[in-house]
From TrEMBL:
Assigned protein family: Belongs to the orange carotenoid-binding protein family.
Record's keyword annotation contains ATP-binding: no
Residue span, OCP N-terminal domain: 18-169
Key words, A-Z: Antenna complex, Chromophore, Membrane, Phycobilisome, Thylakoid
PROSITE patterns in UniProt: OCP_N (PS51773)
Keyword Signal found: no
Taxon lineage: Bacteria, Bacillati, Cyanobacteriota, Cyanophyceae, Nostocales
Protein name: Orange carotenoid-binding protein
């Protein structure tokens, strides 16, 4: 039977126990725009007491520079309006430019705005702002998450902001820019060992990803293979996966711990591996508990890999299949 992405998505389906991350984002989505901005400010400053992101490099900030300079020159009211426009995905010139930014440039843009807000150069949350019960509710929900889940909520809310540029024709795309590299926070692990796993494609995948060698990682996929990031649809084909990896997978430290491998009747194999991933934004201070679910074809190539955020650390040990 031919492998299909739809059936591959269902391997080890018990991995996807309801996560508090989409639930928290759903609460956030119900807030008014001003409350959303205030929530992000309080969540970010609260989180900053224990963990702070690394400052984005100069090359990354350069990509957001023109927008940041425009904002610095504005009055406090205009600055607040721009932030509202971006958060509400309005169709304004700045919100459009933001919409074209890559994930990491969006994060760098807000990182810098946060710094400028602290310095008083950009309008802060108005003094006397009264936190609404809605904001309090989302903050309470956020406090219950582990740090890896908290930074995922922050990241995903920021990524969803800005005008949705996906429907605009290619003629409106800005010139493609090269994605600046992240400095690695730890030396890449060269020889990968995963308890219970000897599958060369999986070990090779982790090794290549830990060295930012995306061409090598992609060569392990079938041409119609797919990668499904957490809470997203599968990204299909070498070109699309390569673009995604260059934009979002640089500098990650992947530390798989253990896994299981099952042979299927058609000669393919399904594997589930659990472990920890660190993002260059927070380095070794935050670990995200994740699972990789691989479907390997009879020729030893990756047909599908899904990356799931685990709902709790206990899920690291849950390697059973239902
Ligand atoms: C200024 C302030 C505070 C207030 C204002 O009102 C509004 C905003 C938005 C503000 C600023 C907020 C800021 C600066 C937030 C910054 C958040 C950051 C830097 C979050 C970073 C999070 C990074 C994460 C969660 C990375 C996760 C990566 C994973 C799970 C990677 C998984 C992968 C694996 C393992 C693979 O095998 C394949 C690739 C893939 C990438 C999927």
């Amino acid at each position: 039977m031919a492998l299909t992405i739809q059936s591959a998505q269902n391997i080890f389906s018990n991995t996807q126990v309801p996560s508090q991350i989409p639930a928290t984002i759903a609460l956030f989505d119900q807030l008014s725009v001003d409350d959303q901005l205030a929530y992000l400010w309080f969540a970010y400053t609260e989180m900053g007491k224990t963990i702070t992101p690394a400052a984005p490099g100069a090359a990354r900030l350069q990509l957001a520079e023109s927008l940041l300079n425009q904002i610095k020159q504005m009055s406090a009211e205009e600055q607040t309006r721009v932030m509202r426009d971006i958060a509400s995905r309005a169709d304004s010139p700045i919100s459009r430019s933001y919409g074209f930014f890559s994930v990491n440039t969006k994060l760098a843009f807000w990182y810098e705005l946060g710094e400028l807000m602290k310095q008083g150069v950009v309008a802060p949350i108005p003094t006397g702002y009264q936190m609404s019960p809605g904001v309090q509710l989302v903050l309470e929900a956020t406090k219950k998450l582990d740090p890896g889940q908290q930074i995922t909520v922050l990241r995903n809310t920021v990524v969803n902001m800005g005008f949705d540029t996906s429907d605009l024709g290619p003629s409106s795309y800005p010139k493609a820019v090269e994605e600046p590299a992240f400095t690695r926070t730890a030396p890449p692990v060269s020889s990968v060992k995963i308890d219970g796993i000897t599958e060369p494609a999986v070990l090779g995948y982790i090794e290549a990803m830990n060295a930012d060698n995306f061409d090598q990682a992609i060569s392990l996929f079938t041409p119609d293979g797919a990668l499904q990031p957490p809470f997203q649809k599968p990204i299909v084909g070498h070109e699309a996966i390569a673009k995604y990896m260059r934009e979002e997978a640089q500098g990650l430290n992947m530390m798989p711990q253990k896994g299981i491998c099952e042979n299927l009747s058609d000669g393919s194999k399904q594997l589930k591996i659990t472990g920890v991933v660190q993002t260059p934004w927070f380095g070794v201070t935050v670990g995200m508990n994740i699972a990789w679910r691989f479907l390997i074809n009879p020729e030893g190539k990756i047909f599908f890999v899904a990356i799931d955020m685990l709902a709790s650390p206990e899920e690291l040990l849950n390697l059973r299949r239902v």
